[in-house]
Specification:
The complex is a heterotetramer, with two copies of chain A (about 625 residues) and two copies of chain B (about 350 residues). By secondary structure, chain A is an alpha/beta fold. Chain A is about 35% helix and about 20% strand. Chain A contains 19 helices and 23 strands. In chain A, α9 (about 280-290) packs parallel to α10 (about 300-320). The radius of gyration of chain A is 26 Å and the shape is globular. Chain A starts with 14 loop residues before the first strand and ends in a 16-residue tail after the last helix. Chain B has helices at about 40-55, 70, 90-100, 110-115, 120-130, 160-165, 175-180, 195-205, 230-240, 285-300, 315-320, 340-345, and strands at about 60-65, 80-85, 105-110, 135-140, 140-145, 150, 185-190, 210-215, 260-265, 270-275, 305-310. Chain B has a single domain, classed as Thiamin diphosphate (ThDP)-binding fold, Pyr/PP domains (Rossmann fold, 3-Layer(aba) Sandwich), CATH 3.40.50. Chain B contains twelve helices and eleven strands. Chain B starts with about 35 loop residues before the first helix and ends with a helix. Helix content of chain B is about 30%, strand content about 15%. In chain B, the strands form two sheets. Chain B has a nine-stranded mixed beta sheet, sandwiched between helices. Chain B is of the alpha/beta class. Classes of the chains: A alpha/beta (about 625), B alpha/beta (about 350). The interface of B and D includes residues 248 and 249 of B. The complex binds thiamine diphosphate (2 copies), iron/sulfur cluster (2 copies) and magnesium ion (2 copies).
């Protein structure tokens, strides 16, 4: 996924195509579209780029930030310090200015003077009277508020050498049918650009230049990609209850259904979306749908997951295929609804009381959200069990550059072992939970197919014949088979991805992780290796774990489990499920709600190794 | 469908319905409920209702929550798929199943605990969504399976309790349903087959959510505050007698009375339940008048039975949602997956 | 209690209530809601209500679920304990707190999503239990905080939507409450302080559960099907404009009209809400007549406001339970623990 | 707890005071009182005894069993085979007869002949025409059904030499006010006894004889004991939703409240019991009560626990004291509601999404249910967090002989750090989540106390000052303190109990377990040691684990973790929380719903050790 870094030759003292940018605004002021415009323009310039939105759990009037990292080497994980900060929100001037790296720049609205206490010696302040320019050039509150955003885009275009033709064509696309608005946007863009050219030394030494890295890429968020996966997998029933950050997954599904799922003749819907009364309801609908034979799913986040526990246990025990998307946010409890975390890993895998274990897939980016969504439905039906796709707010709601999605038209859904009327007509008696094939997976039937397929599904004790039981033997038999069944999914789920130490040396250090921390780790791996600490990296993509996980652990003297939660949940599951000494697994964690950065990983590993030697390249942003 | 015509051998004497099936073909396993339990009478009525409607058994789906009531789907329609889910959440499972396959007939059995306590939210929203489902509450005023705690519904056996009921108002599923805009609501008594069977059949035929509240006495734990024969009394008594688990075998209470008339039914504990059958001329289409009428009778200590309200104008879930006519479970993947060309086209907008 | 008399300095000009406190002493933190949000008007009305009743702020407990509405307790009564729990479950927390300390005043703020979807069961059972609590629904017909999905309540801003509403009937908290036997229920509009403040005060003084449904427009996501100015429209429009997050600043909608009269209120999206204030002679003690009256007006497209029903005869939770008068939290351990002698005696029966 | 075995000298060929007895009946027929009568009579004879009820999830008409184990040596764990089976239910004749050990006896109703296919050569069939005797001596269905039970008690009295004076005095106690019934009972008792004397060789070689082991004991079930603990701890608010097997805990609490909690002057209640609409409601009430300052609790079982997840997370994060009793039953899902299991251990400790860890106490018998209930309230208030008491159906609903409960009248509840009005008046500003004392536990205030104590409790992100936050620092700070806080409870919770190998030799084998499996393990430990396999046994009584747990693991070459669940949940938590190699921890599990027996432990450990040598004493029932 990561192409070899091809940094364009930097002019002396300058850095090209390695920019970390942060924009601080107020939510509800339309800055999101301006920021999206910037991010798309950089993408169209062919530069790998990411856009991360830090927004409040509120609708209007509170601080919000957008972080853009453009990196020719493909390193688009979050950066912890910024070359340039656009400080549009006086309420956060202090902290925004603090986050600029030494030698960096602050762009601010100079319509009003900046407090003296805010000044720093080691950064350059660039003031542009943006509010004033709006007042002078536009009329109406609404337009003035909106155009201030476009003005800073214009300033940045000049400072960073963002292609203005691209910006203009993007605006044309957006406002194709709104000539007046388009004109205002063009004007604002020009105002900002010209002001910068006139007053600042443009471009900054740190700036952008066209590349050709994105020819085969798209820019997309994980929730949209997952929704698309549901469409392609043939899911027809979605039940949900709104909750950040999973809401946009169902929104996108609904959107795509409108586009792809209308019966061409009647205009009727080849799908059903139920906005349930709560998450218990949503889970129940999904279970009912899976039982009756459609591909059904729900999307939720932590609090919803907790509410779904009872139904998840039922689906596990009664062996009902269905798919749960858990887009993680910062817990526990309501926590920080608009911040990211990997805090539900353990809750997902062992969800519900009693002995349960669930198949879970951990996409690392929107591309995997798409493919794992499809896998999830296949696995759910093949293994007749709930399957979880566990992403997080950073993956789900932020903008990632990924390779174009590919679809193989020969794909046919794996419906697993479902007996149809003819087959039922042939067999003598049908027993729902009988392990006929010895692979732990019984046959199922769908309601309405045939009287002989009828059976009674229940979450209470049952034996292999589907009969109610309170007997040790009949009960244990089924429970042991369930354990075998889930275990047997290990070779069927997405395999771990090994990225050996980039310098080709045999490493005695390992990193294990899952999910969206991937890009930060890949970058950290390069930094560490460059700094003389070769390290291998295994990315787990699913539970149950493949055998290669154990092999990897055995092969390394020390392994760091990198994760975004407080309690080292992945590490817990590893020591539980892989017979391996826990003291050789060390936790590297950061869980405060922000996407992980390479620096986080590098610093903690260095500290654990007791190496106080400063690695020159350990600060992202200085890595070309 | 050749296999429909293959009823299980013998019984040449038994009457057959239009499908050539006997009532046996609509039966289930042996009941494990207490002798005389009202729920068994409801089971019998359901069997008769399905038989009489000539429904092929395997095209029916039976669902339930947890409780003595929740067990009853095991006792009818052996040839139908059944789903005994978790406590109070049958409506959601039914919604999902009906969502997946709109061509089957759905019948859900619940208890008053299942429906009016833990499941109240789900019941309300299934009504609002107008899922095409016959929803039967086997209402006995207690939690049978967990041994007789009070439930949220009226203590149906006790007229004497009315004063106390005013203090912590019992939840009446019929009034609740009406306030939520239910399209079909009826009430009956488990022992009144004459009335119950046709009501169940009407509910089955109704397109949309049909709520049938069936007063179905718990012969073991039916209890009323203040009554010396009540469970409260029994329980204290039991504490004394250490671990006694004696359950006296009882007989089903059966009634028969004419439209417009009322009848006093003596319950197993000696309490009196006064039922009044709707007069024949009653017009069930006016929701507000039905509400007022039922409520007024309740104040007088009478439980109105019959088809209390029906609104044929309501569109059921799929109609509102505009789902295709063919059940979603039968739509082939080819009609669902836009294919690689569409994906390529779409991705142009992600650049 | 010396510290009550210590209002925060200055403002010598501000009027003071009987406790010597100014309205400031009843305020909370700065609101972070959208400019013009109806919820902020409700907050203001609550402040006025408490101030006017001369309640010592620290003897009040404010609770909420999750939502924009759920945030509002932060914006009043800085000196009162607050509890912002989980979505839809405020009634249970309030029940527990009121159970522990019956001498405090409890006010719960909820949203229509919080109360009528996820929290419907809890609301119903808090009503049934008759917890001594003023329960305010800030009803805007949408899920504000999660950005404008439809909620289960009527789309209050739209008369045009009535036909569609019949298809998936909106849940009216007032009718629901009446069908559940609520002892106090009122409805008002966020912008009608004249009416709202006294209703809140009446609810606070009512012993038992007091439900006040306040129509409180969401200025950002208020939406109606069919209206070109609706959120639906906006959303599709937004999809076009990529990630736009622009929220137009709006102003609070304020109204003033006389008892018995009706008024048409134009909402931010152009929809019309017709309110009718109860005539002065209306007798709110007859629950069934109140139900009929409200329902009838709803059919005519009018939302009745005022004190719709009150029943002073209902006993609140503690009275029904027979709890001691002193709050349980203050009963000393010595009065709770039977001691070793009692334990020894008791254990004779375990032999 | 276990006194040194003092087996009375057995006459040649006979076994005295070591009897395992099973009675198979139909539920709803009143056999429970007859069985209780037997068990109490044996207790009064001074013999350690246990009574285990295996009942169906149904009200009337299904098979039910009662198992009595009387053992002079104090071994009262379940026995897997029986000396004597009373087969009263034709529907289960087959399996009941199968469970008699070779050389044992079957007592059955000979009013109707026993099917020939049921006969076994190696057991003695004792037929008594009990139904016939009822028909001849009593009138009325009700009395006839009831008296059949008393008849078998009479027969057993003769066969086993159960003291008839004791039986009669127990009956007198029960039917003090019902002369007619008492007479019938006396008659039935005599009928059974006389028939046996006349037709069978009485007593059987295996029988009972008075001892004096129970002078300081009581017989009680765990739910009753836990309820009593709640009373003594001063709990005033209980909220619950009925669910087997926890229902009887709240029933008992209600009963004791009626007895001990009436205001003597007004007759009003010094408690409030709320039967909630469901478990979500119950949890919420308990959280609200704990927040407002009372000792509040709920009792539930698996499905309820799953439903309480969201509120548990809130209580953890907002730091609200409250107590949860989880009386475990067989999961997952509805499972087997009337069968026991230790299947919720993991679900409890990590309950709710996000990073959470909970204090949990694991009583092994009703005595600990009582004391741990009291501890739980103290710990909850001291650490301001939900505390779980995790027992199971076997402990909670069965009859255990335990030492008399002791109460120290000097006990004062530990309310933890609560500021009153005077204290608030003194301090400048109150911050709810500030770690003033550096011990991880902040101060709290109760509503209504003082305006200065007011704060806003929330499950959303908050910093140490109790302010809403979405910032990494403020959030992480509180989360890290929470982790320290829970960790700091390790020395405060009930310490593990070590029982070294009984032969005094240093053992290289260890057993670790928790909860109700204790008696089976103690017995197994004796058997193993006697068989030449000395083994030490550490019983964990709470989470977080004390340091001694790690020490114990280190000290043993191999440690067997014995538990009643499929997935080895205690083992998982051990390898997660104690830095110890998982491969030195082996699982010994049996989870089919029945209480554990020593044989289960012995057999599995032997098998793991690869020792095929039969240990003579490995079958309980042959151990005197
Ligand atoms: C989540 C959950 N809580 C509690 C229970 C225990 N439980 C089983 S049935 C039941 C109540 C049944 O009452 P009702 O619905 O009235 O049915 P009935 O037995 O009276 O027919 C309860 C509380 C459960 N199975 N699941
Ligand atoms: C268990 C759970 N599910 C979903 C959410 C997400 N959520 C937060 S507020 C809300 C709805 C709020 O709507 P409403 O109660 O009407 O309040 P409003 O914002 O309109 O005032 C939802 C669904 C949540 N916090 N918790
Ligand atoms: S307990 Fe009551 S409801 Fe349950 S089976 Fe027996 S009679 Fe019926
Ligand atoms: S989104 Fe709506 S409800 Fe929420 S604060 Fe804004 S206007 Fe109010
Ligand atoms: Mg019931
Ligand atoms: Mg709302």
């Amino acid at each position: 996924m990561i192409t070899t870094p091809q940094p364009p030759a930097p002019p002396s003292g300058a850095r090209v195509n390695d920019v970390a940018l942060k924009i601080g605004t107020v939510n509800g002021t339309g800055s999101a579209s301006a920021n999206g415009l910037l991010r798309r323009a950089i993408f169209r310039m062919g530069i790998p780029v990411s856009g991360k939105n830090l927004f409040p759990s509120n609708i209007q009037g509170l601080p919000t930030w957008y972080e853009i990292r453009a990196n020719g080497g493909g390193h688009t994980a979050r950066s912890r310090s910024f070359d340039l900060v656009v400080a549009m929100n006086p309420a956060t001037y202090r902290r925004d200015i603090d986050e600029v790296r030494a030698g960096g720049w602050v762009l601010h609205d100079s319509s009003w003077p900046l407090g003296r206490d805010l000044l720093r010696d080691d950064v350059t302040f660039l003031g542009a009277p943006m509010a004033q320019m709006c007042a002078d050039n536009f009329t109406g509150d609404r337009v003035r508020i909106l155009m201030k955003n476009i003005i800073y885009v214009g300033v940045l275009a000049a400072l960073l050498e963002i292609d203005r033709t691209v910006l203009r064509s993007l605006l044309e696309q957006t406002f194709a049918k709104k000539k007046a608005l388009l004109d205002s946007n063009f004007l604002a863009l020009r105002l900002g650009h010209d002001y910068a050219k006139e007053h600042f030394e443009c471009p900054l030494p740190v700036h952008l230049a066209p590349m050709d890295e994105n020819r085969e890429s798209i820019i997309i968020d994980g929730n949209t990609a997952a929704a698309l996966g549901c469409i392609y997998a043939g899911a027809t029933l979605a039940a949900w209850y709104p909750i950040t950050p999973s809401t946009s997954l169902v929104d996108a599904f609904s959107h795509f259904c409108g586009r792809y799922r209308k019966d061409p003749e009647t205009g009727k819907n080849r799908y059903l979306i139920v906005q349930a009364e709560d998450e218990l309801g949503a889970a129940g609908v999904v279970v009912g749908g899976g039982w009756a034979g459609v591909r059904s799913f729900t999307a939720t986040s932590g609090p919803g997951l907790s509410l779904m526990g009872e139904f998840i246990g039922l689906a596990y025990y009664a062996e009902i295929p269905c798919v749960f998307f858990d887009v993680q946010r910062t817990g526990p409890s309501t926590g920080m609804p608009t911040r990211t975390q990997q805090g539900d890993i353990q809750s997902v895998i062992y969800a519900s009381h009693g002995d349960t274990k669930h198949i879970a897939l951990f996409p690392a980016d929107p591309g995997e959200c798409f493919h794992f969504a499809v896998d999830a439905f296949d696995l759910a039906e093949r293994f007749q069990t709930p399957v979880f796709v566990v992403s997080d707010l950073d993956i789900g709601m932020n903008d990632w550059v990924i390779p174009r999605l590919e679809w193989d038209d020969s794909y046919r859904p794996d419906r697993g072992k479902v007996l149809d009327a003819d087959e039922l007509e042939e067999i003598g008696t049908f027993f729902r939970y009988l392990d006929v094939d010895g692979d732990g997976v019984p046959y199922r039937t769908l309601p309405g197919t045939h009287p002989r397929g009828a059976y009674f599904t229940r979450g209470s004790g049952h034996d292999r014949y589907g009969r109610y039981t309170e007997d040790e033997e009949g009960y244990t038999d089924v429970m042991d088979r369930l354990d075998r069944k889930i275990g047997s999914a290990a070779p069927a789920v997405p395999a771990p991805v090994l990225r050996a130490s980039p310098d080709g040396r045999r490493a005695s250090l390992g990193i294990v992780a899952l999910g969206g921390v991937d890009r930060a780790i890949l970058e950290a791996q390069e930094i560490l290796t460059a700094g003389g600490l070769p390290v291998d990296y295994l990315r787990i993509r699913a539970f149950p774990f493949a055998n290669s996980v154990g092999t990897f652990l055995e092969a390394h003297e020390r392994t760091f489990v990198v994760e975004q939660n407080r309690d080292g949940q992945l590490r817990s599951i590893l020591v539980t499920e892989v017979p391996f000494p826990g003291d050789r697994l060390e936790s590297v964690r950061r869980f405060g709600g922000l996407p992980l950065s390479a620096t986080d990983v590098v610093e903690q590993i260095q500290e654990k190794l007791g190496e106080r030697t400063r690695l020159e390249s350990s600060v992202p942003g200085t890595f070309a | 469908m050749s296999w429909i015509a293959k009823p299980r051998v013998a019984h040449p004497g038994l009457p057959r319905n239009e499908l050539g099936l006997t009532q046996r073909d609509y039966e289930g396993r042996m009941s494990t409920l207490c002798a005389g339990c009202g729920h068994d009478s409801v089971t019998a009525a359901l069997i008769e209702a399905f038989y009489g409607l000539n429904y092929p058994p395997h095209r029916i789906v039976k669902l339930s929550g947890i409780g003595c009531s929740g067990k009853t789907p095991t006792y009818f329609l052996n040839q139908a798929h059944g789903f005994n889910g978790v406590h109070g959440r049958m409506p959601a499972v039914a919604t999902g199943a009906a969502g997946a396959n709109r061509t089957l007939t759905y019948v859900g059995i619940s208890g008053d605990g299942d429906s009016l306590s833990i499941g109240l939210g789900q019941l309300a929203h299934a009504i609002r969504r107008n899922v095409d489902l016959l929803y039967v509450i086997e209402n006995n005023g207690v939690y049978g399976l967990t041994k007789g705690q009070f439930s949220a519904s009226a203590d149906v056996g006790s007229t004497a309790k009315k004063g106390a009921a005013n203090m912590q108002p019992p939840i009446d599923p019929v009034l609740l349903g009406l306030s939520l805009g239910v399209g079909f609501v009826a009430r009956s008594f488990s022992g009144d087959k004459e009335q119950l069977v046709p009501l169940l059949q009407a509910g089955l035929r109704h397109r949309g959510f049909a709520l049938v509240d069936v007063i179905s006495p718990c012969v073991t734990f039916n209890d009323h505050e203040g009554s010396t024969k009540s469970y409260r009394y029994t329980r204290e008594h039991l504490t004394e007698v250490a671990d006694a688990d004696f359950v006296e075998p009882k007989r089903e209470i059966a009634v028969s009375y004419a439209p417009g008339e009322s009848i006093d039914v003596e319950m197993h504990d000696g309490g009196i339940l006064r039922l009044r059958k709707l007069a024949e001329g009653f017009d069930p289409t006016d929701r507000d008048r039905a509400y007022a009428h039922i409520s007024e009778r309740l104040h007088r200590g009478e439980v109105l039975t019959g088809l209390l309200h029906v609104d044929k104008g309501l569109r059921e879930m799929h109609d509102v949602a505009g789902t295709v006519d063919v059940p979603l479970v039968e739509v082939p993947h080819g009609d669902l997956c836009p294919g690689s060309a569409a994906l390529d086209a779409l991705q142009e907008s992600f650049r």
